[in-house]
Amino acid sequence: MNYRALGDSDLRVSEICLGTWTTFGGSLDEDAAIALVDAAFDAGVNFFDTANIYSQGRSEEVLGRALAGRPREEFVVATKLWAEMPNGDRGLSRDQIQKQIDDSLGRLQLDHVDLYQAHSFDEDVPLEETLAAFSEVVKAGKARFIGVSNWSGEQIQRGVEICREHGFAKPVSSQPEYSLLYREPEQDVIPTSRANGISQIVYSPLAQGVLSGKYRADEEFASGTRASARSEFMSEYLTRDRLERVDRLRPIADGLGITMVQLALAWILREPNVASAIVGASRREQLRDNASGSGVRLEASTLEAIDAVFA
Q: Which residues contact 177 (CB under 8 A, 6 or more apart)?
């Protein structure tokens, strides 16, 4: 496992981050989730991503129990707030940030998180109020650094300027969707972040599993998979054209002696501004395959062949 600096912070995170969105407190029973965290450490993963809204708080609870007893310096935890909680709490107001960080720390059984992130941009709250509150959380020692998620390049730049003007804690990370099938961050998020000491922690690097190659254009989707349920989060990736293009990656991966997953993750990690790619997993072997995407370096000729597939 390789490690990268997270923006201009002193955090070093594994190139692969274990995400807990639908699994912890959701599709996995607690014993399986805890075993998955153990497997992550075995694979060199030190970075774990969650959010207060994931499984209505249960994700944080399970992750907290999975990490309990481990030396605090051995892992990096990131959580988020913004989306509506079961009790109606939502948004990025000062009151919510102060309340939700305490609630998250309680569920995680931690006295601080390494990274506290705005899960989305809140149009209903002045940006200065949000950033001032995040800075208070850092000063209180409840979070080491702050980050943003699903913000545009323009929103990131505005945030950085406000932080500089008022001496607030500046975001060190941005969490966008990014994959071979979704390259929008290259337009403004990555360039703006690079100029401001902000790294990317990307989600859906495998496009909801489509880039693993397990879905074929000429085959029925296996029962029980996300594709068979036509999940709203992945329907755009299940068109015949996209599936056929993904299938054209297979001989490239085979020629390198790596899996489709490793190829897709290595492509993400070719970008220096990406600090880590968040992967979900439900089985140890799946996590090991994902983790082995770290350290794979693609030659220029391979990158050109991949780009030709998705031209």
A: 150, 184, 185, 202, 203, 204
pLDDT value, residue 232 = 62
Spatial neighbors of 232 by CB under 8 A, at least 6 apart, are none
Residue extents of the structural domains in the chain: 3-211+270-296
Task: Determine the Cα–Cα distance for residues 12 and 2; give it in Å rounded to an integer.
Answer: 10
Look at 4 and 221; give whichever has higher pLDDT. 4
Q: Is the pLDDT of residue 234 over 80?
A: no
Alpha-carbon distance of 81 to 137, in angstroms, equals 13
Tokens matching residue 290: 């994902």
Question: In the structure, what pLDDT confidence band is assigned to residue 229 with cuts at 50, 70 and 90?
Answer: very low
Of 54, 53, 52, which is closest to residue 23 (Cα–Cα)?
Answer: 54
Chain centroid offset of residue 176 CA:
8
Position 56 scores a pLDDT of: 94
Catalytic residue among 3, 54, 178, 203: 54
**Integer-rounded Cα radius of gyration of the chain:** 19
CB atoms within 10 A of CB 107: 21
Opening angle at CA 40, ends 34 and 43, nearest 5 = 150
**Residue closest to 279 by CA, chosen among 8, 22, 12, 74:** 22
Question: Catalytic residue at 182?
Answer: no
Count of CB atoms situated within 10 Å of the CB of 310 = 14
CATH of 3-211+270-296, one of 2.60.34.10, 3.40.190.10, 3.20.20.100, 3.90.1150.10: 3.20.20.100
Angstrom distances, CA of residue 284 to CA of 35, 37, 70, 224, 288: 8, 9, 19, 19, 6
Q: How many CB atoms lie within 10 A of CB 286?
A: 16
β-bridge partners, 218: none
Q: Quick one: what percent of the chain has pLDDT higher than 90?
A: 88
Q: Indicate the DSSP class of residue 271.
A: S
